[in-house]
Amino acid sequence: MSFLLSELATRFDLELKGLPEVKIRTAASLLDAGKDDISFCTGRRHLSELEGTQATAVILHPDMADCYGGNALLSENPHLAFARISRLLYPERRRPAGIHPSSVVHAEAFVHHTASIAENVIIEKSVNIAAGCEIGAGCFVGEDTVIGEGTVLKNNITIHHETVVGRSCIMHSGCVIGSDGFGHAREGDHWIPVPQLGKVVIGNDVSIGANTAIDRGALGDTLIGNGVKIDNLVHIAHNVSIGDDTAIAACAGFAGSTVVGKRCTFAGQVGVADNISICDDAHFTGQTAVRSDITVPGVYSSGTLLEETRSWLKNATRFKQLNLLFKQVRDLTKKQA
Amino acid sequence: MSFLLSELATRFDLELKGLPEVKIRTAASLLDAGKDDISFCTGRRHLSELEGTQATAVILHPDMADCYGGNALLSENPHLAFARISRLLYPERRRPAGIHPSSVVHAEAFVHHTASIAENVIIEKSVNIAAGCEIGAGCFVGEDTVIGEGTVLKNNITIHHETVVGRSCIMHSGCVIGSDGFGHAREGDHWIPVPQLGKVVIGNDVSIGANTAIDRGALGDTLIGNGVKIDNLVHIAHNVSIGDDTAIAACAGFAGSTVVGKRCTFAGQVGVADNISICDDAHFTGQTAVRSDITVPGVYSSGTLLEETRSWLKNATRFKQLNLLFKQVRDLTKKQA
Amino acid sequence: MSFLLSELATRFDLELKGLPEVKIRTAASLLDAGKDDISFCTGRRHLSELEGTQATAVILHPDMADCYGGNALLSENPHLAFARISRLLYPERRRPAGIHPSSVVHAEAFVHHTASIAENVIIEKSVNIAAGCEIGAGCFVGEDTVIGEGTVLKNNITIHHETVVGRSCIMHSGCVIGSDGFGHAREGDHWIPVPQLGKVVIGNDVSIGANTAIDRGALGDTLIGNGVKIDNLVHIAHNVSIGDDTAIAACAGFAGSTVVGKRCTFAGQVGVADNISICDDAHFTGQTAVRSDITVPGVYSSGTLLEETRSWLKNATRFKQLNLLFKQVRDLTKKQA
Fold first, then answer.
1. Does C197 share its domain with C292?
2. CATH number of residue C136's parent domain
3. List of long-range contacts for B25-31, beta carbons under 8 Å, 24+ apart
4. What's the Rg (C-alpha) of chain A?
5. Sign of the alpha-carbon torsion through A35, A40, A43, A46
6. What is the sign of the dihedral through the CA atoms of C175, C180, C186 and C189?
7. Residues B156, C158 contacting (CB under 8 angstroms)
8. Do residue C25 and residue C150 come from a single domain?
9. Complex confidence, ipTM
């Protein structure tokens, strides 16, 4: 597929600088781009790459239009314009509608005739798969689960019973949705499992990463809001609620009953304790441990900075005497006064 | 299914307060409960929820009996009583016995006639599946593995050869048991894999979370004791030994040959180094790094507390000068003396 | 299978001490070894185990030859010699060549006649599986993927389209290769997915752990060098590049576009931020957070040391006043001067 640069400008309502008749077929980074490629530049820190690029055209912020002599499309949000243009150049691979004969679909399940069920899929009783869904090879969809229009499940995914998934979601391979929460009551030395009676309810436009696990609620449900984006190997415990448009990077973990607001971001390996409440628009840098409620929007961190192990060990040993040091300094101050 | 409150009191040996003839059909939290629901209250911090609940009956500690005017069952351990009653109200979904025709069971494997083998399961040679087991769709069970009575495997689980699993265990979807340990010998710049000749031995009443991975031993076995509860996305390396009734929350990791005692608890994202020995009854808060032996029962932590990134960065920068600061304060103290 | 000790000495070019005619059938640790076992000793810290061992023969460093009166093979690298001898004693279990009838192999895929395709495998269009490969039960191999000679995939693995895998690799169960990277452009409050157009390219002799996830590149590819060893539950984001012979322990995570040199080692739960550059021969202790470039080979750490929670909490509270404390000490020093 190819497009004239002018066609792209018109379709996405972008100002064109340069030759409208050049053909765009493919997308690439500034560094790798060549003939027929469109690329994009997100800021002045990429200026040298911009100046050296061989791309046929580049998407730029209007403020940078003067920095580049080649063909350009101007956008207030070059990354977004690039996302849209590259989706046009590279339409998603969609499987043909229909049910592969190796799959086992329960007689009382509903699969829309425009949905695609790949090889070795198991669809249990009373499941409802809406129009345009795509269920990849090796997936399991448990009883009474409902999957909304256009949602795509990649491969070897397990969705347990009674899960509700919205429209236009994408679930990546190996994820597990609706597994039992980690709930046990103590009896003497032993742990007695508490039945996990709730379910998982997932909104629209949600993305869930490879090998991520989201547990069903114990009583009441685990909730994933609209537009939430979750990366790989994330753990979301029972009865967690994640607000709309929040993004969670890989290896983060959320303990039970924690409630997260809207538009939050969690960098990789962040851990959030149980029963925590986090307001809207809170952001957490990598590996931060969140052990108390967050009530004020902002950026939060914990941990220490990396250093050579030899010096780190000395400082870390001193950390264990830190409270003592404060007392010493207080005494010194008093004496000096 | 429904029960009179008096029936529940008798069956679980609990004192009844209020109307014995009310019917209980379902379970819910204090907040969500309504007609026919039983709920539970674990302490005075939930007093306002208790006072406002619409539950038909509530399970309470005897000390709180006077706080509540409605129907109640009194228990020294309300959470445990609730776990038992809700298991009665919501019996586990069990699959019918038998082998689904899409599964491949080796002629020399033994599957008890009361066990259930779901769709697309692979059972290799000399596997032994005991009475009442349930093997979910897409599971693989490797040669010579033995699975004890009543153990349930959810979906898309891989259990490698020679694994020994006890009675009444539950394994959640996507977990991998008996994968090769991460063992390599150095040859110049390269890593040469060391054959992993041991196996994984799992006790009774063990729970293993979704997408958790437990490696087989290198020489000798990886051991998971009776009653151990392991959450999602946990890593247990070769030759680790976990003592009875220890509980491990999500995203925790245990490096090779570490030995953990009984009744320990590990909160989420705790990391334990290799060849560590941890005594019984040791507890670790979230994200703690365990780099040395623990010989005294207690509660342990590491890390720093969350703060705004702006101030955190200043403090974290100072951490790298901490040993120096101690020297300065010592000098000041000396001079002042 | 059994070997004379002299045969092992000859085959692996090791000096023999003691009886050449003893038979070796099995391998075990110094502690567990008995008749017919060969064991190994990696250093003087295992001296008491060495002295007490019942092994028929032990592999030792020449420097330790005098410490042991029994039969021995002498090697500069006992662990490596042991790895090789135990591979001889315990040849890898290989599946017979051929395609199991339950698998679905696309008519336009190529599977070498010496490769083994187990039960319920899906091989899509234009896939190329080379000689001696072994694809385990429940694996999915997407369109246009190429898998090199002798590579083994364990069970329930997903390899997405266009992935390139080298020779003699081993992928452990549940891993996911070539899932979409976590790339989204912001549009107002929402996240718009950016098509992930690159692929994953994996070298030779690579090992990938159970339930590990490696994302495809956004533009350009995610690269895993030759001889790289990756443990369980590791996350590798889009466009990351890992240099040859680097080893990554479990639960580590690498954010997008980070470039790692050769021969690095990452202990468990290490997190590396995005767009970081790490030189060759850099090493990181467990749970270290890498937030800036590493340009000098060495060993690096972050975090604090474990202590009892009660004292930890005091010190961690003081950490938040650390920058203030430095100012106080500076003032004290000035005044005293």
1. yes
2. 2.160.10.10
3. B25/B1, B25/B89, B26/B89, B27/A195, B27/A197, B27/A219, B27/B82, B27/B85, B27/B86, B27/B89, B27/B90, B28/A219, B28/A220, B28/B55, B29/A219, B29/A220, B30/B55, B30/B58
4. 26
5. negative
6. negative
7. no
8. no
9. 0.96
* B107/B69 same-domain check: no
Q: Which residues of A are catalytic?
A: 238
- Measured CA to CA, the distance from residue C40 to residue C30 in angstroms comes to 7
Compare CB distances from A328 to B154, B231, B329 and report the shortest one's residue: B329
Q: Are B15 and B81 found together in one domain?
A: yes
- Are both C123 and C263 inside the same structural domain? yes
Q: How many CB pairs (< 8 A) connect A and C?
A: 238
How far A195 CA sits from the closest chain C CA (Å)?
Answer: 27
Chain C residue with minimum CA distance to A26: C197
- Nearest-angstrom CA–CA distance, B17 and A41: 71
Same structural domain for residues C26 and C105?
A: no
Q: Is B238 a catalytic residue?
A: yes
Residues C131 and C251 in one domain: yes
Rounded to whole angstroms, the Cα distance separating B88 from B59 reads 15
For A335, the domain range is 309-337
Residues B317 and B243 in one domain: no
Instruction: Name the residue facing B184 among C247, C250, C263 (closest C-beta).
Output: C247
Task: Please compute Rg for chain C using Cα positions.
Answer: 26
**Token duo for residue C136:** 């385990």
Query: What residue in A sits closest to B100 (Cα-Cα)?
Result: A104
Counting the structural domains of chain A, the total is: 3
pLDDT tens string for chain B (337 positions)? Answer: 899 999 999 999 999 999 999 999 999 999 999 999 999 999 899 999 999 999 999 999 999 999 999 999 999 999 999 999 999 999 988 889 999 999 999 999 999 999 999 999 999 999 999 999 999 999 999 999 999 999 999 999 999 999 999 999 999 999 999 999 999 999 999 999 999 999 999 999 999 999 999 999 999 999 999 999 999 999 999 999 999 999 999 999 999 999 999 999 999 999 999 999 999 999 999 999 999 999 999 999 999 999 999 999 999 999 999 999 999 999 998 887 7
- For residue A61, the domain's CATH number is 3.40.1390.10
Q: Do A250 and C273 touch (CB under 8 A)?
A: no
Residue A301's closest chain C neighbor by CA?
A: C320
Domain boundary among C89, C122, C141: C89
Say if CB A65 and CB A74 are below 8 A apart: yes
